[in-house]
Amino acid sequence: MKKNNMRLYVLLIFFLIAGTKNVFSQITSPDSYKACYYYDGYWSDWKSQYDWEIKGSYNGFIIYDKFTHPSNYFFKFYVAGRIAPDKKEIKQHYKSKTWWEYGGSVEYYVCDVYPTFKDCIKELGRPLKKEDLETTEYQNKLSILRASYLSKGNSFSPTGLTKKSSPAKIKIAPYPKKSKVPQVYNIWFDGVGLGFDMGWRFFENRR
Length: 207
What we know:
By secondary structure, this protein is of the alpha+beta class. It has four helices and ten strands. Strands 1, 2, 3, 4, 5, 6, 7, 8, 9 and 10 form a ten-stranded antiparallel sheet that branches. It is elongated and about 65 Å long. Mean pLDDT is 85; it is low at 6-30.
C-alpha cells in the first residue's frame, strides 16, 4: 500500500473510532444531566439525574425517564422567540458573563397531596411523576388528607394527576464560542426555579 493511501486509511480508522466513542459517550454518560431547584430564597445543590432523558431542541424540550415513551414526560418547557445567536453574540455574552433572557412556558404535574411544584420538589426532590401516585407513601398521605377534609365536614374527591401550564422566564447561561450551543438553563415559574445542566449532551440540530 502506498504511503499516502496508508495515511488516509489510518485517518479514516481514527475518525470512525472517535465518532463511535462520541456517540456512545453522549448516550451512556452517567453525568449527562444535572438539576437543581430554587425555593425559599436558596438554590439546592446540583444533582446528577442518571435516569432522565430529554427530547426537543435548544428552544425547549421534554424531560422523561429513560426506557419509557417520551409521551410520559413529567416536565416540559418552551423558549419563546429564541433565535440562535451568531459567533459574535456568543463571544460578547461569554466575555461579559451576560445571560440570555426569554419568555416562555412550562408544563408539569401536580396532585392532591402535592398541589404545587414547590410541594413536589420539597417532598420528592424532583418533579412529580405518574408512578408517584401508585406508591404506598402517596396512598397514606392521601388517606390523611381525606380524613382531614371529612373531620371538618367537607367532602373529598381526589383529582389525581393533573397537568399544569404556567408562563415562565427562561435564562440561558453564557457559553464559550467553541461550544456553539447552550448548556445551562434557569427556568423561573410559579415562585420557584429549576436549573438544568445538559453537560456535554447535544441535540442533533445544534441551533
